[in-house]
Amino acid sequence: MKKIIITSIFLALLLSLGNTAMAIPTLSQWLDIGNQDPLWTPLWVDELGVNPAGAAPFPPNELILSYDYIPQVTIVPCSQNPDNPNIPNPVVGITNLTGIAWTSVWYVADLSTLINNDDGWINGGLAFKIDSVGLNKPLIMESFVFDGIFQPGETWEFVIQDYFDTSGNGLAPSAFSSVGVPSFLPTGGQDMLSSGSIIAVPAPGAILLGGLGAGLVGWLRRRRAI
Questions:
Q1: C-alpha count within 13 angstroms, C-beta hemisphere, residue 11
Q2: In whole angstroms, what is the distance from residue 136 CA to residue 128 CA?
Q3: Quick check: 129 and 139 in contact, CB under 8 A?
Q4: For residues 213 and 60, what is the distance between their CA atoms, to the nearest angstrom?
Q5: How far apart, in whole angstroms, are the C-alpha atoms of residue 23 and residue 73?
Q6: How far, in Å, CA of 187 to CA of 20, rounded?
Q7: Are 184 and 191 in contact (CB under 8 A)?
Q8: pTM, entire model
Q9: In the chain, count of helices (H) and strands (E)?
Q10: Which DSSP letter does residue 71 get?
Q11: Which of 49, 14, 5, 9 is nearest to 205 (CA)?
């Protein structure tokens, strides 16, 4: 009886991890133009976003919360680039609601968004890796361990240098509400729900446990069928 209970608990855990690991892949085409730090992503990544009323929803395994504010003291994440004192450097916060640990996370600006601490281009948008190493160090806070891993339930804060929305719609730097990198309406034109995108790759352990969960479910089904 104890063995059955332990197996059931283990199976439930693997099923849970397997379900959270099945996020929708997003094509990422990067261009490293030699700015600040090297820029590279896998061909397929996951886009993380928020779900305000009226937005096309992100699935639970890609869901985050976001906010932004202007700090009292200006933070310059990339001192090699001249900082424009007339343009604010907002702090953007993101909270991981996905249930997945993400080992690499990038910010990608929409085409109408200008920034001054980019490392290159991803899908045509100015982009940088959200980290605290190299010349460009946008990541300034992790609510758990400061290890560069976006853990489930963790909040990160990072800085966008000289953020400017050229669309004239007053889009916030934390507006990550539209699926797509960059975000566009199906009928053409810019999607007014996003000024940028957050993309990430999951920790290898999440993929492995998800695969184990799927494999165990298949094995149990085959045994029942025999």
A1: 13
A2: 8
A3: no
A4: 18
A5: 38
A6: 32
A7: yes
A8: 0.81
A9: 2, 13
A10: -
A11: 14
